[in-house]
Amino acid sequence: MLMALVRRLTLSFLILFMVAVFVFVATEVLPGDAIDVYLSADDLAVMSDADIEEMRQRFGLDRPAWVRFWEWFSGAIFGDLGKTLIDGNDIVDLIWHPLLNSVILGAIITAFTLPTAFIIGSITGYKRGSRTDGAVSTLTLVGYSIPDFVIGNVLIILFAVWLAFFPAVILVFSNASTSELLAVSLLPALTVIIGHVAHQSRLLRAGFIETMNSEFVERARLSGLPEKWVVFRHALPASIIPMLNSLALYISGLLAGLVVVERVFGYPGLGRELIEAVARREVNVVQGITFWSASFIIFMNLLADFAIIALDPRVRSAKSA
Amino acid sequence: MERFRKFNRRDVLIGSGAIALTASTIDGSFINHAAAASPKQGGKLVYVGIMNSKHKSPEKAMHPYTGIEVRTNVTYDRLTWVDEDLGVQPQLATGWRAVEEDQTVWEVDIRQGVKFHDGRDMTTNDVVASYNMHRDPKLGTSFSKKLLESVEKVGPDKIRFHLTSPNSELPWWMAEYRQAIMPADDLDKMGYSGNGTGPFKFADIDVGRRVIYEANENYWDEGPYLEQLEVVTASGADPANAYLSGQIDAILQADPAIVGYLGSRDDTEISTAKSGDQILMVLPKYEGSVFADVRVREALSLALDREAIVRIAYGGYGWASNDSHMHAASPDFLPRKPLRDVAKAKKLLAEAGYPNGIELPTFHYAPYTPELGRVFQVAAESVKEAGITMPIEEHPLSGYRKWRVEDKEKTRKHRFAMGPVGSRNSAANLYRMARPTYNESGYWHPSAEGDEYIALYKKAMLTGDTAERNAIYQEMQRLLQREVPGVFLTGRKELIVHRNTVHGLNSHAQYWNATFNKVWRD
Prior knowledge:
Shape of chain B: globular
Distance between the termini of chain B: 26 Å
Order of helices and strands of chain A: HHHHHHHHHHHHHHHH
Low-confidence stretches of chain B: 1-35
Strand content of chain A: under 5%
CATH topology of the largest domain in chain A: MetI-like fold
Structural class of chain A: mainly alpha
Oligomer: heterodimer
Largest sheet of chain A: none
Helix content of chain B: 25-40%
Structural class of chain B: alpha+beta
CATH class of the largest domain in chain A: Mainly Alpha
């Protein structure tokens, strides 16, 4: 078990390194750099090439790419994400509030998504083939198929522009209190929830149907256990396993959804910060955000593994064997 | 039910970001201006504004070089202000004059009785210190570093500028957005406190996203009437959505594509400037380039249907350029006549050896503003009538400038591509074609015509008389229209969309010179 944990952690570190390299290379191959974005047409009208080159040297952008990467990565593994290229601000300070804001939004989404998906998935799975199952399955298929940015814009038009119930753009400060954020987060949260509930409920439905057809459920029924007991004690826990298996996918999907929804609504979270950093070509900020996001996904994946071991006797017995 | 009836297909287009499609419906008939009425005190204005979101530093958020929304006259004042007709008006200066005939030494009278936001009196020492910062080799702005030799106090209310070269338009230069007056301090500490003399003072900031200002009760000029001013950043469809949902009261630098629709609403007015930023087609003139031949350059300019571009791509909220950096709001602007002459374009091409038309190299542009794709599509279509084929290609904004001008120092070879041009005073505008090493002219220099142009520019900088200088500027523009070192296509008019309960908010060709002290609301 210990060896497996060490192996898993080593692999996680390798994945993180590869993610960091990939993101750095991806941003490096783009044309231009932070200086190109920083200088306005007005600046360029009075600056010579020598002025621009001097500026590039001042910000350390003339150094080889691998030197800049290693300088950043060697700090990042110890929690120091470095400083922004243009302003020299501490990146952890810069992304701390957006991170908290995204965690709040992500928590709201998850708090609604998982129970709702659980209820819908188990009901439709139990009533497989019924009218309810057909109708809900169609709706979830539609919900799953529509991209988040489309849902977000439709919600804006309906509830902000047309009915004026909610703000179209989130104008709270980055360091807004939780209550302020909660007051304006309904539309952004709903945007992501629709797609995720649809996806997760379909996973649970499939898992539930498979479990209900399994031998151990058949055996439980034949042994005379009440149907409720069979469903809640035996079938449902086993049906959650496909959901847990896809937890890493859920988390990465959630993060991707947050990037989109934060851009659509102007929500002051990590996703919006990432998009702005890409636009400003602040490579260190982009690296920092993706590094933290990848770390989070890997950590959640590890948690999911442990949860599966705890829930699935087959996996438990295979491990102990 | 009223809301229900107003929901239509256009709402969907706005909300989904497909705002460009509405451009064709705009006919400019919505332009309206607030009726004169007595200003009322109080209230708050929230607007989407011109924010510098490149910096994410709290320390730099209030600095006049790097701060957000300091380009408009909100927190800081300059010595002068350029009005909507591009005339120079006094701000913290009350008068100015060149004391040397060669326009290299200027005296400026400084306004008395002005207070900074913290209650300190503004003095000539503060003005001298501010300009010492502006010209400092490490801290200052490129323009000030090049132009300003020294600044000195010559009396309790008078300072003197010593310039590195003659400049008869110094008063306009003093109105540039970075030339803010700040309290004297160590030069490297100046500007970070946000302490200016402007009509509003900083109250709260979310760096790069949102600023809240409060009225400066000690403001030296009229107003401010508003108690609070708030500016937010938003892009794409967000400004229109925020406006439609009632979150904001105004949009500065509004996209022409959304203006027609928003302007059709009963609660909305549009303030339109005479001009705004324009676009330049940089023509490479190295040996072997088709643009080395002036006849091809002129043919291209004459073949372009600028009026169609203004009508279609800008929805009427544009203006036709004149093959110079000058913009239509300027009293020195010389319109190109004729603006279009397809027959002459064909004749010029035939004389240049292209009797059956010409295929130009691919023209590249980057989407600096949303309408540019439309602009060049119409442009490429319009030149076909003269037998000119002009393939166009959009390039990502990131790294565009460097890519456009590559290896210019060695070979002077560069791409046939677009450059953005801001609105400036005549001297600053026309100077841009006088720089021998500057790519915007497509390396027009050295040439006999280029030398003639530089000589005219130098003469203008020595000419204190406005009428005489105007005559020189006209001559310079005629020369540019004859030689066509670059083709200047069209520009957008600066637009402000605002609720009709907001008054005194006027669009300005130089967007950073919009003012808020006289703005009030019902």
